Amino acid sequence: MKRHAPAWTYASASCTMKLGRLYLQAVSLMQGACFLDRYRSSEPAEEPIFVASPFVVIAARSAFEAVDPAFEQVATTLGKGSWTIFWRVNLPLARAGIIAGVLLGWLRALGEFGATVVLAYHPYTLPVYLYVQLSGTGVNAALPLALLSLGVSCIGGGLVLWIQYASQRREMQ
Is 2 among the domain residues? Predict the structure, then answer.
């Protein structure tokens, strides 16, 4: 029996750009939310994306490949189109893996320091601003930023672990 290509391959090819732009906007927002100065540029927000995007792509691809093709076949027999199958079958079933990948990618982008400080110093991202405060005014000025960064990272890591636990528990049922 010849296996058909999953519906998500057709639908995701046409909506990859939209999802990519959404991811770029989210990373840009998280990288430079509070630390933009008068030198507004997109380079510091774009650079961590190249480092973090493999986390998102690999996790999303694995999540989509884990979707059972029988669900797609059932939706096809019910007369649903490829877009409907993608949005109502594949995306909800792969949601946990996609969210985990986005969180892992975001955490990786949050910790990006080296290339950002070398390639584009302004606008400040959180790691660069933390470094500037630490080297310029000392530990007292940098401590709140370090605690903020630690708290955000712990929340993101906790969300990843919780999503993984929830998906494993769902699989066991």
Answer: no
